[in-house]
Amino acid sequence: MIHVVFQQADIAVLEKAIELDPKMTGLVVQILDDYATGPLGKIYEAEGFQERKAWWEEVLQYTPYAEGFTMTEDRWTVHQLTRFLKGGAFTFPAAEGEEARIYKEDDEEPAVWIWMGQNQHDVCGYYWLMSQLKDYQGNVQVLYMNNLPFINEKGGIFYPTNLFEIQPKEFLKAKRLARPITLSEFEVDPDEWKKLCQESAPVRILEGGKKIVSKELTFYDKDIFAAVGNEAGKLNKVVSNCLSKMKLKTGDTFLVWRIRKLAEEGKLDVQGDWTKGWKDIVVKPAGMATSEAQPAEEAAS
Q: What is the tens place of the pLDDT at every residue in 135-160?
């Protein structure tokens, strides 16, 4: 089988779970894009694809993730998943100077398991993916950790938002949640996704279950301003504080892009050379005197 996840950190924990249960043996692949942010209009067509590609190129500018970024990898993954579900092999693109890796099952009926945590990143990725797999209903399973209790490392009960928060051994219980995506879901969910694509809002959040709601570009601004506070601070620290305190999380790249936009609008002040990376950037409230711009931790040194 092939396991599909939507966050890099999910891969390692799921692979450890597979080591504990040979019945889960299979390939783990990731859908890379964060479909909870950015334009979605005509996303399955060349026009919409190029619009989203241009948006991501702007967002990723001056980030550690810009080099080697390509949106075609998710398309390739879907192509390989459909090939696998038809009884063929899943082939990874060959790196320069290397042979392509191939995964194929000869003895079992091919199956794809889609794993989701209770967050908008995973659920939007699910919508984007499953809308392209309707022809394989019966062979595509979903496992949604929706408002379910798990045991943490200290033995306490908690309700994880992301798959990577779950201990590998706990996945052995979670696998019992696997069920085929129903024919009804293959009818209803793509319609819900189509509506979201038509709205093409810059931000989407999860309100519960699989209900995704479109939000305005300024949705996370209150979290950013709260993280900046009344003093100047290094960008990395501002982003870290923001992510640790916000209830509905988004990616660090989106937050940094939004900080850049707020600076352009005069709502924040930013100092430093973006071309040298995030570590040299200082963020401060708009209008703070230049003499006050130095972060407190530097002033003390």
A: 999 999 999 999 899 999 999 999 99
Question: What pLDDT, on a 0 to 100 scale, did the predictor assign at position 43?
Answer: 94
H or E element, residue 270: strand 268-271
The pLDDT assigned to 296 comes to 47
pLDDT at residue 4 in the model = 98
Judged against a pLDDT cut of 80, whether residue 35 lies above it is answered with: yes
How far is it, in rounded angstroms, from Cα 231 to Cα 299?
A: 12
Q: What are phi and psi of 244, to 5 degrees?
A: -75, -25
In three-state secondary structure terms, 16 is helix
Q: Is the C-alpha dihedral spanning 75, 76, 81, 86 positive or negative?
A: positive
Domains of the chain by residue range = 2-197, 218-292
**And the tokens for 26?**
């299979």
Whole-number pLDDT of residue 290: 52
**Burial level of 135, CB count in 10 A (0-12/13-18/19+)?**
exposed
The CA-based angle 30-34-39, given to 5 degrees, is: 140
Q: Where are the alpha helices (DSSP H) in the chain?
A: 8-20, 46-59, 72-85, 120-130, 171-174, 183-199, 221-228, 235-245, 252-264, 296-299
Q: Which CATH class is domain 218-292?
A: mainly alpha
CB 281 within 8 Å of CB 61: no
Question: Strand runs (DSSP E) across 71-175, as ranges?
Answer: 90-91, 102-103, 112-116, 140-144, 150-151, 157-158
Each residue of 206-217: pLDDT tens digit? 999 999 999 999
- Taking alpha carbons only, the member of 150, 167, 168 closest to residue 159 is 150
Separation CA 222–CA 282 (nearest Å) = 19
User: Do 11 and 28 contact (CB within 8 A), yes or no?
Assistant: yes
Alpha-carbon distance of 148 to 139, in angstroms, equals: 24
